[in-house]
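Morning - FVH inputs below, output right after.
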Amino acid sequence: MTNASITVLGLGAMGSAITARLRETGYDTTVWNRTAAKTEPHVEAGSRAAPTVAEAIKTGDFVLVVLLDHASVREQLEPVADALKEKVVINLTTTTPNESRATAAWAAEHGIAYLDGAIMAVPEMIGGPGSRLLYSGDENAYAIARTILETLGTADYEGTDAGLASLKDMALLSAMDLMFTGYVQAIAMMRTVGVSAYDTAEEVQAWLGAMLPHGRGLAEIIDGRTYETGGQSADFTRAAQASMITASREQGIRADLLEPHLKLLNELAATGRGGKDWLAIIELLTIK
Ligand code: FVH
């Protein structure tokens, strides 16, 4: 399908990397960007530039949207809804699951084939071995676009609910965020005795590397839902968590990043579940 024409809307860091990869793999590319100057290097490299979104989508069978956020996507796509009817629209912009579902519903109302995507990679990784992109929504659109999408990285289709790709994106980013804020806490604590960030990061990496294989065991306990386990109880973990918080403060370091976990453990104890596995905090996370 290298004779397919692809329009890319948005030439920020990610849109540029995607356009470059599509060109390298032989696709005919038309680009549009709000700030027109960003199209110039792409034109020099062989893409076609269009002055408006409406012009840009005329030449593409596939329209890849790589804008800042949900609002910018809707701002640019809504005025050209009729012209998108003949196209497959793939939105790679980061959005929340409900924003993805709303755009999918809007697309369905207008008869537009729409696939929502989430990019689990940074621009330099696009097209390389570690690049992974998630997709959800119109299954037929995925089947038609699949060959193109596989040039950007591993392509995983998550299901027909258009919010699924962004939900997994947000879940994985949440895990990454909590892990890296853990690095920051450890580095802040060790810096108080003159240890460099580099050295603590090495230590954290080795420690987490040893601990990560236990993740699957945690999942088994959670799937069992009884939380009757020989593992770490909430009460045990409360004591450990309180020590970490006290140690931070003794070193003159705020414990704001640690406190939310202790708050949940305290809630378990206050509701008579201190003897349960600490993983029972997951049952407190559902907003009622
Ligand atoms: N860069 C990354 O590492 C991450 C990896 C994971 C996925 N994200 C998401 O990808 C989307 C694009 O990110 P980006 O890195 O390309 O972002 P920027 O370089 O900041 O470029 C933003 C582009 O959006 C255009 N834009 C912003 N607002 C509007 C608007 N109202 N109308 C039209 N275009 C708009 C902006 O245009 P300009 O400022 O150059 O005129 C850029 O083309 C994003 O969802 C990430 O979360 C990337």
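Note: Residues 10-15, 33-35, 38, 66-69, 72, 75-76, 93-94, 119, 122-123 surround FVH (CB under 6 Å).

O.
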